Amino acid sequence: MLQFVSTFVSQTIPSHLYVPVVTAVLLLAVIYAYTQGRRTNRDRILDAKRIILTGAFTPLGLTLLEFLAKKGAHIIVLLPTPLLTSHQDEILNLLRTTTSNDNIYAEPCPLNSLDAIINFCGQFTNTEDESTRRIDALILAHEYSHIGLWGTGIGDQSKLRDDENRQRDEGAMATFQLITLLLPAMLVAPIERDIRIINVVNPFYAAAAPKFDPRLASALYSALTQRKGDSEGSDASQRVQSSSIWSLEGQRALRTAVFTRHLQRILDALPEPGAAPDLTSTDVSSSGRKKNQKSNIMAVTVCPGISRTDTIASCILAPSSSQLTSVVRQWLGALSYVVLLPLLHLFSKSPTAALQTVLHALCVPKPITRRHVPVAEDAAQVPRTQPLDLSQAPLHAPAEEVLVPGALYTDCAVVGLCIHPAETFIETLTEKVEPGKVDVGLDDECLGRAVWEVLEVGITTWKARARRRDTEPRS
């Protein structure tokens, strides 16, 4: 074999090009390793863990579904369709067979239907069997796939842009509704149970940090549901049409990250089991828990990075089932994707590489019961003749990484983010933040409350839209 390779190289590559070729190959290998990102070195026993998964039939979701099935987890897949299709049934049966895991269940729950979400959550939380309503992890991967085609928003493509905006809003509202409706089942779980809520977002959150306005989602959704002639709806629609795809996708991802951080703040502020809550205080910072005691429910935001299939392909490839895209646009998108495929393999992540950050957030040890060992300077003070007592180890110096509840994870690490609210939104924050303080972070409580209120307004609008659609006479 080596002789064959040596003969092939000597006959195809001149000797004076050996060094440039080797250098180019090494450079491409370094670029590929860098673009694929870090791989998690964490592992966790997931056998019999009950996990609810959305977005399971996206490339990232299928890869995650296969991983969880191999680990022996009990998986509840929320179907994006009202009924189980033959294609979905074949995939699930194949996974059950290849992984020897029969505990893969499918529940019809289209995330664009408010009634379907309410029905599923109601049936799940109202069951009398405690093992049936158990939740060990809630992984919401439906908001990761990119929404928006290049070249939309001009001419006759404005309807396609409106449809894309509707998908963004419905995805955010579904995330908010699923978490809040399933939260009662998590709160009654034993305090020692490790429960994780993982929101998977797209990689364009940084595009919204310089001009973040969480009200854009509410105004956007209102613009699509307002009746024709409403000046407020027309103004909101004009703002949305003038925004780029990257800005809208960034607003969507950053809004979810801020919401997740505020959700963790609320969870940590809840009184510990058996303690009487303080009903006279409305401040989230006032807590019935002891100082530094955190909730066993940990919510984090995960950004897997730029994926070749979930991000780039969704930008270029027009869905063949869409009636708002022309056949020419679909063929041009497919041709462009095929031409760029070699570069995409080099500069974007595969689904397996994109999944690493999600697995890291799922498998990294929790901070509540994690035992810490002494650091070098403390260990040096312990006599060698005495056994090392780990119970006396300081808690401020963890030997290994632990999960940071409420944080934003990218490439298997926590990311700090400075958010600059848009000028149209600063007026609502000036009465709540310090004078002169413009840049805030994910930890800013008033920003978290504002995002929470925006999502509540969106839910109210969604309910009104569904009620109006049901009462309209059918033609």
Provide key terms for this protein:
10 strands, alpha/beta, two-stranded antiparallel sheet
The gist of it:
The protein is an alpha/beta fold.
Tell me what you see in this structure.
The chain has 475 residues and is α/β, with parallel strands linked by helices. It is built from 15 helices and ten strands. The strands form two sheets. An eight-stranded mixed sheet has the order 3-2-1-4-5-6-7-8, sandwiched between helices. The protein has a two-stranded antiparallel sheet with strand order 9-10. Helix 5 runs parallel beside helix 6 (158-187), helix 7 crosses helix 8 (231-242) and helix 7 (215-225) packs parallel to helix 15. The termini are far apart.
Q: In order across it, which strands form the biggest sheet?
A: 3-2-1-4-5-6-7-8
Share in helix: 40-55%
Report the principal-axis shape.
Answer: globular
Largest sheet descriptor: 8 strands, mixed
Secondary structure elements and pairings:
Blueprint: H1 2-12, H2 18-36, E1 50-54, H3 59-70, E2 74-79, H4 86-99, E3 104-108, H5 114-125, E4 137-140, H6 158-187, E5 195-200, H7 215-225, H8 231-242, H9 245-269, E6 297-303, H10 308-316, H11 327-347, H12 351-363, H13 376-380, E7 408-410, E8 413-414, E9 418-419, H14 423-426, E10 440-441, H15 445-471
Parallel strand pairs: 1-2, 1-4, 2-3, 4-5, 5-6, 6-7
Antiparallel strand pairs: 7-8, 9-10
